[in-house]
Amino acid sequence: MAKFINPFTDIGFKRIFGQEISKPLILDFLNNLLMGEEHIVDLSFLDKEQPALFEDDRSLIYDIYCVTDNGKKIIVEMQNKSQPYFTNRSIYYVSEAIARQGERGSLWNYSIDAVYLVAFLNFCPLDFERKFRTDVMLADKVTHRQFSDKVRMTFMQLPLFNKEAEECDNQFERWIYLLNNMETLTRLPWAAKSAVFQRLEEIADVASLTRQERMKYDEGLKKYRDTLSVLEGARVDGFAEGRAEGRAEGRAEGRAEGRAEGRAEGKNKEKLETVARLAQAGVDLNTISIATGLSLEEIQSMLS
Question: What is the pTM of this model?
Answer without folding.
Answer: 0.75
